Amino acid sequence: MALSSKKKYCYEYPHPAVTVDIVIFTIIDGKLKVLLIERSDNGKLAIPGGFVEINEDLDTAAKRELAEEAGVKDVFLEQLYTFGAPDRDPRERIITVAYYSLVSPDKAIQAGSDAKAVGWYDVDIEEKKLAFDHYYILKCAVDRIRGKLEYTTIGFELLPENFTLHQLQEVYEAILDEKLDTRNFRKKVLQQKCIVPIHKVTANVAHRPAKLYAKKGN
Fold this sequence. Notes:
By secondary structure, this protein is an alpha+beta fold. Helix content is 23%, strand content 28%. The two termini are 37 Å apart.
């Protein structure tokens, strides 16, 4: 049963506030990018997020804050980690639960009322440009998605429904920030049996048409 927002709480010891922060990735021009807002209070760049309301669960708060601050809706979010260093936020004692997601670069974004601007930035952004401990949250999220490439199909979130092996390799290279040997990459992907051919080829191209694939289970 949901708690009433009017309910009063009285404890003998102080309590930390709880926030959510949402790290959203995409790929633009072959580079892994992160969605950041420019804060109205100090002009610093920050990961979209905010305080959890008293009647909200964490997932609901994350989706609400992402929509309010960056205009992003209808994305799958996964919890990343909880960050709770006592001095991570100069305003007060705040514990944050971070989420992450990968979205298409054409996903609509729009700055909310408490943000001056919103945009896509390189993931190797300088630490001094980010608010609070968001540099470390970002690095943790980058490490997570790079690690998950080895045993999940997380990279497929950045692909159309039907794609070529070349497009898939470009996604992996952007996330890993390194060039991959084409022959070894294709051999590994096909051995994992996570994609299936759809018996179609690319159309309207000057070069030899490429086979199209789909994520297995689609």
